[in-house]
Structures
1.
Amino acid sequence: EWLRPVIAAHVSALTHYPDSDCAALAAAAARRYGARGEEIIAGNGSAEILSVLPRVLGKPRAVIPVPAYIDYARSAALGGMTVEPLVLREDEGFRLDFAALEARLRGDEAVFLGRPNNPTGHVCGGAELRAFAARHPETLFIVDEAFGDFVENFDSLTRERPANVLVLLSLTKAFAIPGLRLGCAVAGAALARKIREQLPPWSVNVLAQAVGVAALEDAEYLVQTRRFVREQREALAADLARVPGLHAYPGEADFLLVRAAAPLPAAPALAARLLKEGIAIRVCANFQGLDARFFRVAVRTARENARLCEALRRASGAHPAPAPKRRAATLMFQGTSSNAGKSVLTAALCRILRQDGLCVAPFKAQNMSLNSFVTRDGLEMGRAQVVQAQACRIEPEARMNPVLLKPNSDTGSQVIVMGKPVGNMNVGEYIRYKPRAFEAAKSAFDSLAAENDVVVMEGAGSPAEVNLKRHDIVNMPMARYADAPVLLVGDIDRGGVYASFVGTMEVLAEWERAQVAGFVVNRFRGDASLLKDAHDYVRLHTGVPVVGVVPYLADLGLPEEDSVTFKAEKSHGAHADGGKVDIALLDLPHLSNFTDFDALRIEPDVTLRIVRTREELGRPDAVILPGSKHVAGDLAHLRASGLADAVAELAREGRAEIVGICGGYQMLGRRIEDPCRIESDGRPVDALGFLALSTVMEPEKTLRRVTCRHADAGLAVRGYEIHHGRSLYDESLTPMVVREDGEVIGVGRGLVWGSYLHGIFDADPFRRWFVDRLRERRGLAALGLVVARYDLQEAFDRLAAVVRERLDMGQIYRLLNL
């Protein structure tokens, strides 16, 4: 991941000639390979060094055990050397025969050896080769360790190097930078000086030198590379062995030499067939010692290796492996920042695809939000995926949001996995837990992908959070697991959206950049045709197109994903419109489930104000205390801000209706105890004292969908419970909200009441009854009938119509391979 930053940091240096001595690079190579600086030769790839060797070796003969890298013989022949191949025996696995080699040595030769050998991958022993070279001091040994970085526990001859050994090294292979070209060699100081004199000046450019220094110091990358290559090579070799007619030779590099026999065709015909399927193999017929039966394959990812083996099985005429379970097409929205609009766009695409007749489901591996929901089977999940499921016209399931984090402090959260709490964790604890969380997320995704045509995925925050990328489980790692093209969403309303696109791409690793298939400009106000130059610039800079410009959509009528937008809303002072009722919603530091009150916003005769200070409260018709993830902390906030006293004054006057939902309901009581320290330090807390109610926090969380009856209204209300508290009330209070099973989950007295029922205001008849009661106390006539329907389905259709028009849906379907 350091490659792009290193190159970017040295672009300005391209106005200068590079250091012709490659001093910094040579010093780094000397440290890495255990040599002296004067023994290091740097070149524009090791092939450049190889090409000048015959001119300075002073040896008329080149002995080359074959099969071997073709350029050994080519360079030797061009340099006037007589090339003498030593054909290794196939029945011995093409392993180096030291006795046969020794019989060829006279002292006037250079021996070219690949270690590991290309194309066999065989590595001759370091100790054996050192001893052999020591017995033949007049022979010069050119040992090519270009692929040595792929071999675990590799014994490089750069250390304890015999005087008559020159070691060729490559950085372009292990660090995957063949287009940059960088290699070096280690030799005796006198020979190294002669070789440097034959190389063109400034052959190693500024960028290659800078990258080389960084690469030579990055040992951890090579450790990871060797482990990955070994694991995938062993798995690939085992799979190839199960293909009729194939024999893979054991090797230790990042490739395997394979021999094909009946029922498979010869390698050239096989290569032509595979190429039609988008798979390239290296036919080895032009390697001396091999013929048209042989080919070489690279070790790639598990998915690519499996694809190769499946294609080879088909080519052999063998029955293919059992078809994998159906896997949905995937697409993921990620953002340049939080609140860029990816949740809404995910919902929009879900509805569009559903309208087009596809079975579609939403998915977000990990959500951080206090805005949660209870599924039909009593599991907890984030509200954003609930909304997206509604856009798909399917029942929300915890699989759609397998990991939910509910912050309960500045540094800690309750962690919910597959709908059930697994504990409260601080940041460090959760980072250690994340591998388990990721496994749960992948399992949930696999299950959804097996049942649907499309899974529309959502990321979190930004994939460019460099402090979080190392343990990210929701953005690029999840996209890679799901094989999901990524659309990066930017909010142009904030400004700097194109710089955000370019900047995000700049800090992504190459594999992450490869996941990004397009950009979406969101919340644009104006003529989109004016953005063409900006779009051209972004594509020129990143190679990625803008696939849509979505306009600013006010009053969508859809619940927000989290409290970012809610917290950003301006608070308002006393409302003076005599034609509307005034409802004050108290903002809390740990406010949860703020979407409980979205339905009140659609009523034409209601002003819903967010209130954060005593001065703003005024004299509303109703005050709502919302849910809270930290009731004790939010009670302290209400007292410190003066809002507790102001609400108490309104309660004493008996004019304003005081309503508490969930945590707000607990605040209306007299006392809250938390002996298990679910939300607090365990000390009892005095609540506001408006109701004769006491609450005890319990470890087992109540999670259920319920249907209730509101006693005063005589109307059915539906919603869900999410709480740790168990509240007890005395006989002076009236049961207000009663479940179908008879359990009381809300009580009140006079104009003060509360309930554990989230979503109570979503029911149109009850909400109108509630508003009409406020109207009457204000001296206004009750309307007596429902005037606004809280129907998200119409909102989804409106959203889908706009987004369908503004996204390049042809490109979207191509990305989905549909």
2.
Amino acid sequence: MGYCLGVDLGTTFVAAAVAHDASVEMFALGDRSTVMPAAVYLREDGALVTGDAAARRAVSNPDRVATEIKRRLGDPTPVLLGGTSHAVTDLLGTLLQDVLARVTAEEREGPDVVVLTHPANWGPFRRELFEEVPRFAGLSSALTVTEPEAAAAYYAATRKIAEGDIIAVYDLGGGTFDATVLQRTTDGIEILGAPEGIERLGGTDFDEAVLSYVNHAAGGALSELDLSDPRTVIALARLRQDCVLAKEALSLDTETTIPVFLPTRHLDVRLTRAEFEDMIRAPLESTIGTLSRALRTAGVTPSRLAAVLLVGGSSRIPLVPQMISRELGRPTVVDAHPKHAVALGAAIVAQAHARPGGESAVLSAAPERQSALVGAAAPVTPLATTSAPGSPVEEAEALEPGGSAIASPPAPPVPSSEGGPPAGGPRSAPPSWLHGDPRNDWPPRDGHVPDGWADGDRGTGPEPDVLGDETWRDDGSDEPAPPPGARQRRIGRRPLIIAGAVLLVVLAVVAALVTLRPDGSSDAEADGGPPAGAPAPDPGHDHDTPQPAPDPAPAPETSVPIPSIGTTTIDVGKTPGFVVVNPTNGRQLYIANRTAGVVTVVDTAVDRVTAKIPISDGPPQYLTFSPDGRRLYVSVFDDAATIAAVTVLDTSSNSVLATIPVQTRPFASDVTPDGSRLFVPNHDSGTVSVIDTASNKVTDVTVPAHPHWVEVTPDGSRAYVANHNSNVVTVLDTNTLEIVTQVQVENSPHSVAVHPTRPLVANVNYDSDSVTMIDTNTHQVIARVPVGYHPQDVTWSADGRFAYATAVDGDSVTVINADNFSVTATLPTGDAPTSIAVLPDGSRGYITNLNSGTLTVLDLTA
């Protein structure tokens, strides 16, 4: 068998993918990009030139170039190039012919099967016209598939879709918009309802909006130009290209500058992301309305969607996933290269057709959507989702979610752990999408029995009152059924009573054996131990006595690219601003309720509030645990900056042990791994207070202005500080308390997160709407990832495969792949998500929603 070819003849770009026996990858068509412009240029000698060569010539001779050709299909008016008329099908055929020539030259033979894609909302007339395109390219036969079906095929090959799952494909390309609803069935993936679309809406319209903005900023100078002057025509062509570049730049940056070179005037026009978003918000709202209509025709409510798959180059605009998540309340998934998904899916479909003995289907579209072009080709053979070793589907599954095996430049390198293999090497756990779900090797969650849970204990703090609505068992036991979701064994009361009696006898014997001194102290006190009734000492504070090595923690569960949103939220009271999880067992969440003046405790076994701890020192703002989970350090301050202290809680009794004054408002602190020192950033004084946790002695270190966040590395040697107004991340040597270096990041770094195993630090930049990744070996920024509006917190998954960034004004959380720094999903949250905590076993994440008074629960492993 040779190879198969999938081609996406788009409005603005042409993409092609090649499927061999063991791989499916993009074919590089462009000079500097994998895709090539969908442009055709007529030379003086009558020859037609395509792609980058045509785009370059368009600047000097715009009347001889055709762009947005696909939009013209069905228009009876021919396209004029240099005064010569050309049929749209002829020009599309020229583009396809160029693709075939390039691929055939590289592969040294023609493809076995070619699959072309087209919009799902095309009617019979345009589909019939499209059938003529392969003839002009010299093909005897070809197959077609709709663009959303091709994208779904790629999605199914790279991510697990359970039977019955429903996804929506939101395809916003250069010139058209399509919305399609599909469902995974026993026979494959089928379209539900009727696809909806908008004929003329896409990236080119956004380019025109930018051009209009430039004209307005220039005082209408573009409207006054003499279009008969060749210099003017060339200047406008260049300006249009610069407007396209500005639009694309704003997907990564918060502002850009557009150079304007007119025959009589030169100027620069500044454009911010917010201004650009205001231009395109209305058309984007129309796309969401179209998507909603597609859901209605399919009879599907948004809550039934597993995800919304974003396809097309314009779907990379950050506002798109934000608006969809906010409107539908469902996760959005965008590939690292959304322009490639359709072509890759078409190649997978082509290879499935070349193997008529394939297994279960991915595509089960209506026959008219699987039409054969030029000749009586057989219907498209269903694509195998349960693939044999070495098949293209298995190879596609081996691609990292959110990425693809393409010929474009590689992603920035991720530093490996010191002394270990490179990231993604043998030391990494196999991802869940590679060979099925590795969590099948784990006990089911409902069958998991944590230590200390067999006796029905639900953790520290007051027990929730569940007697009023408990359900009694019908199996003869006198034990009430546990609350929904509780992980506990079915143990009757009678055995518990017997066990309690035995325990009392044992305790009485132990008490009788303790010899008291005449002054009432015990032998332990006489030997220098703590007084009776004192809290147990923190092992990390004893530097003279060697401590036994703790038992190694079990490996966390494998996180997935697209977490599931919990079906319910947890009400935790007013203004929950920050959440942390007990690091030793993951059983308790502690939440700082700012204006309420309390710290709320949630039992993660039942996801219910078990305690409210009043903080009399002032409003609790940020929290951090000691490594052994026995102490909770609460940053306390008020808006007037009249209160500045750290309150120390004993988590065994939820009582206040101490109050430690600091210089100014203390923000998010961290404890060294040995528990001996607490690093507290003092926002208003530009200092970090280093507190000895045994003596509560404070030492202050000067850092750049407005430190917001501190996190210490796992080995305890460095502390990373996000300095909000200085736009730097400061690196402190925790032994000498000296500044090692400062890493320039973007606007308003708010929080930092140290990777659990790699030399990598992530920080969110509040006013740049981004996350930057810092290589801690070189202290260089190696990646920048756009996220939601005003990100406030970033946290790594327990296994380090993904980072989660909460956007307080975007009402969303963004999932970032740690290997290639691509966004794998954007998920909706409650109102104003401020922080996220991940359980030590990696199974779930909890997000504080400041204005909603709730926690959003994420299942991070399914």
